[in-house]
Write a structure and sequence with these properties.
Elements (H helix, E strand, L loop, with lengths): L2 H4 L7 E4 L5 H11 L3 E6 L13 H6 L3 E5 L5 H12 L3 E3 L10
Parallel strand pairs: 1-2, 1-4, 2-3
Length: 102
């Protein structure tokens, strides 16, 4: 995170970013740009639409975010996510409606 983002108006907020593709990550990028402390949760296999992690488009989309790889299909990964969520102000996800119930 840059020094400018750390001093932004949202610097007191912690955000977990579970979003994928374009709209969700763009939304959370705005929060990060305004100073929120954002952790992007990534699947071990990555996002099929985000193949090249070093592309300028992907770097721009996820700027000012930290990242953590978690397997949310494993009990251990889900337990870590729940512990993180307890200390988080905002959780952003854009899964299909049925996914959150699984």
């Amino acid at each position: 995170m840059s020094d400018n983002a750390a001093a932004g108006p949202l610097c007191r907020f912690k955000v977990l970013d579970l979003s994928r593709v374009r709209a969700g990550p763009t939304c959370v990028r705005q929060l990060a740009d305004w100073g929120a402390d954002v952790i992007k949760i990534e699947a071990p296999e990555g996002d099929s639409l985000e193949q090249d992690r070093h592309s300028s488009d992907l770097q721009q989309l996820h700027r000012n975010k930290r990242s953590l790889t978690l397997n949310l299909k494993a009990p251990e990964g889900l337990a870590i996510l729940k512990r993180l969520a307890e200390r988080t102000d905002v959780l952003v996800e854009n899964y299909r409606p049925d996914v959150k119930f699984r």
